Amino acid sequence: MAMGSPAETQILVVDDDPRIRQMLRRYFEHEGYKITCVSNGKEMRSSLATRSFDIVLLDLVLPDQDGIDLTREIRSTSNVPIMILTGREDVVDCVVGLEVGADDYVVKPFHLREVHARLKSILRRYRTGNKLTPNLDGILAFEGWRLDTYKRKLLNAQNVEVELSTGEFEMLDAFVRNAGRVLSRDVLMDLTRHRARDPFDRSIDTQISRLRRKIEIDPARPKFIKSVRSIGYVFTAKPVLTVLGARDK
User: Fold this and answer.
1) What are the CA-CA distances from residue 12 to residues 20, 104, 192, 201 (Å)?
2) Model confidence pTM above 0.70
3) Beta bridge partners of 146
4) What is the pLDDT of residues 76-107, one digit of tens each?
């Protein structure tokens, strides 16, 4: 992923509405970004196969394929950030998009400054959140456990897969990639794609409690995910990365 100025950032817009494409192109080119606009899933695949992008802005309703399916397709092979663009009023579609791997969404009609702010927030998370392996898929091993970031699987010491929800996988991935670093709830919300920043929201704590029950010998006395009073949590194991080659994938 590119680092630094907007001029180093490549945006792919996938939307069948020419007015939306033109509006986004004009705005982001004026802001100094490099932007490519396509109108359907076929053109999206072609663009992703031939160029490297830092973020994809993806419409949910396209003439040849549903945006949810395209989100799944992208996420199955890439960690590129995805922002959903939708004219659907039903928030369930947006939630499903987040569950299958999108990072955020905006509802049409949208303000361009809001899209820009959300885009910068997503890129900032990706660029600063994954300290250990920012762009690499592989096996992150820690004390008998193996987290496969490409296949999004967790295997125990007996090579048996431990089922994780999307949220639990993202939580563990964030912890392992930031091992030894104390993470506040706000940081965890960013790293795990939670939209809300409600100080009374305990969803982070709930997910950590569930994750502890799956990886800790004694969840009441956690060895890996330790609480840091009044601050957040820290992952104490020291992971080792094995980068996946093309054959391994």
Assistant:
1) 13, 15, 22, 33
2) no
3) 141, 155
4) 888 888 999 988 665 677 777 777 778 888 88
